[in-house]
Amino acid sequence: MEVILLKDVEKVGLRGEVVNVARGYARNFLLPRRLAEPATPGRVAEVIRLENQRARNEAATVEQANQIADVLRGAELSYDVKAGPTGALFGSVTTTDIADQIWEKHKIRVDRRKIDTDSIKRIGRFAIPVQIFEDVSVEVRTLVIPEGGSLPPEEELAAMEAAEAEAQAAIEAEAEAHRAEAAAELEATLAVDDAPEDGAEDTRTPAEAAADAPFDESLAPTEAVAVEPEPAETEVAETEVAEAEPAEPEAEEPALEPESERA
Fold first, then answer.
1. Which domains are present in the chain?
2. Rounded Cα gap, residues 32 and 24, in angstroms
3. Residue 119, Cα to own-chain centre: how many angstroms?
4. Is 216 helix (H, G, I), strand (E, B) or coil?
5. At what angle are helices 62-73 and 95-106 packed, to 10 degrees?
6. Please, which residues bridge with residue 140 across strands?
7. Cross-strand partners of 136
8. pLDDT at residue 263 is higher than 50
9. How far apart are CA 100 and CA 79, in angstroms?
């Protein structure tokens, strides 16, 4: 979904740019917070017209760029912002904010994309590089001051930044410890779930139980033993019957009488 950004949105784009974002991100975050508006054809045309108008106020030659650079070298930008006790801002100072103040104070138009800095998120004194024209650039002195107060000396600013870094490191270390503890608890829970309960019925098949059982080398045969096959039951029965019954005597053939006696 295409939208026109009404404010700078970190990692999305700068104010006035037409960007393509996920529909859910636009409807649930950008549009309700008035950070963007739908990119209708009429609004896109208006954005292009304003961009062209701004471009006409930018340096068009090297001579104009050098004149602008001379003005910005003597300029000082200042922002009063809400900040915490360690100097961290509740928000940030963006390149759009810098370009807007240069225009408001000096009527000089610079391209936000040529302001070479990330969003400023701490109080302090900064020298912001700005490219005016090809091979013409200048550093603009910029002060980010805590709202209703003043900037402390550089030594105090450095100590505040170190304290903020130390606190952030402690938070990250604590978060890492919690993650490691949660991972260990999850691993222990999974191990308990996988272990069979005492007295619980073993639902494994004999083959699965045998595969899971540890191998016992004492049960392995040391040498092969020949085993004679047992005789079949029918052979054993016939042998027993043969031994139990006595052999019948063979019948004798009658003797033949001599012919003289028959006469």
1. 1-56 (3.40.5.10)
2. 11
3. 25
4. coil
5. 90
6. 128
7. 133
8. no
9. 12
Cα–Cα separations (whole angstroms), residue 168 to 82, 130, 154, 157, 174:
19, 31, 21, 17, 10
DSSP string, 24-83: HHIIIIITTTTSEEE--HHHHHHHHHHHHHHHHTS--SHHHHHHHHHHHHT-EEEEEE-B
Q: Which of 37-46, 58-67, 215-224 holds the top average pLDDT?
A: 37-46
Report residue 196 as tokens: 């069979």
Tokens representing residue 185 in the block: 């608890």
Averaged over 35-55, what is the pLDDT? 86
Which residues share a beta bridge with 125? 143
Q: Which pair of tokens denotes residue 251?
A: 């019948």
Beta bridge partners of 19: 3
Q: Strand 136-146's sheet: what is its strand order?
A: 76-81, 136-146, 124-133
Q: Strands 36-38 and 2-5, how do they pair?
A: antiparallel
Contact call for residues 137 and 115 (beta carbons, < 8 A): no
Per DSSP bridges, beta strands 18-20 and 76-81 are unpaired
| Averaged pLDDT of the chain | 80
At 235-255, the pLDDT tens digits run 555 555 455 555 555 555 555
- 3-class DSSP state for residue 159? helix
Report the first-to-last Cα separation within the chain, whole angstroms. Answer: 145
Instruction: Please state, in angstroms and rounded to a whole number, the distance separating the CA atoms of residues 198 and 188.
Output: 18
Amino acid at 254: P
Amino acid at 15: R
